[in-house]
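Q: Could you write out the predicted structure for this multi-component system? I'm mainly interested in how the pieces pack against one another.
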Amino acid sequence: MNGRVDDSFTAVIGLEVHVQLQTRSKIFCACELDPHAAPNTRVCPVCLGQPGTLPVLNRQAVRLALRLALACGCEIAPLSSFARKNYFYPDLPKGYQITQYAFPLARGGALEVDTPGGTRRFPLERMHLEEDAARLVHEGKGPVRIDFNRCGTPLVEVVGAPALHTPEEAAAYLRALRRLVRWLGVSDGNMEEGSLRCDANVSVAPTLADRPGRRVELKNLNSISGVRAALHHEIARQTEVLRRGGRVEFETRSFDAAAGVTRPMRSKEEASDYRYFPEPDLPVVELSPSELEDIGALLPELPLDLHRRLVRQWGISAEEAEVLVEERALAEYFQAVVAEGIDPPLAAHWVVGEVLHLRKERGGSMESFPVEPRRIAGLLRMLERREISTAAAKKVLVHMAATADEASSLVRRMGLQLLDDEGELEHLVDAVLLENEGLVEKYRKGKGGLAGYFVGQVMQASGGRADPQRVEAMVRRRLDEGGRQ
Ligand SMILES: [Zn+2]
């Protein structure tokens, strides 16, 4: 699409993403963060905004936000501070939200995003810390209830520059951000549960060179597909308004996912509506160079850097590398298998294939996957030495997941050593060809594709213990020999 909505219109999109930080307690009090706790059981006078209480900044929230900011190459402010954003709403007991306004934690930087056209760097404007509001619970026609457990949850707001041009770019940006916050251990990144919440600013301009029109802010975007659908709808709506010679209003609209349309919520607030002023109860956030250095030193290799290394240095296919860098625990598992001396492409193939498949069947996380890297390396080593067939190795892996046994002892016990005896193999091939005389005839009349079927039959007869390449060579030799007789 190249940013062009149609021949004469261009969309400009900026995303603001609220990332819930994975701390143990809230940002300004000691209340525990537990999304599954019964409503209003994780509250105290501070997060309920009672008079006379004082907030105390949770330093771990600052450290997690800094991890993300450093990973995005932002410029970190040595001094940042909090402000009060005043508005009245039932989910905000104090009547104001504590947030960073004039002096945010970080500015600039970029989010690296893999797109079909290659890696792109989408610039960021800023990152700042703030507290979350309570949750309004709407249940049927009954009264709206308020759960204050969420009140005071630490958030870092990642404000992207208006540099995206299509709903697909916006979706790729969000996927990359979600992967990064999970990778860094900053957030669980779960959009459905609200750990990642996205607002989008979108405006459509008659041509790329024009200044975009007035921005519309889209709210209630709680899934990546929702963001994409909302943007598609909103860009089409604004384009239509402009094409008819109308004017796009400066407003906030909400996305109705069920109907697939955006609807006006309210006219957009200006910053002055919030009467921001400095928060008098919290000191300035000071960061020493050594503190920043310590956090920077603990940053892991980032997913896109690892992806490049896996492909260039280790010869892994781009697709398999893509899967491996989707989850840090998986990437670490894979690297531990390679560290055992296994050929990287073979290890990648097995981790992306059998290991992921088995984990999906069993459920649970990579950390609780029962076959440790050392044991699967033992299995892959037998495969590398051609002591077992691939089919047999797959069977063995399933048993390894259910026991603490080593691959070699399982192979012995299950009788799965590679069938190596030439005479025995020939015997199996002959038996299969004899049983399928009709098909052999067809093969010789030109149905070459049948060779695969014969190989499959021989593999089955061998209990998966034969080397399929060797069987295929043998089958073809036999069939072609027969043809000459
Ligand atoms: Zn509290």
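A: Regarding packing and overall arrangement: The first helix runs from residue 59 to 71.
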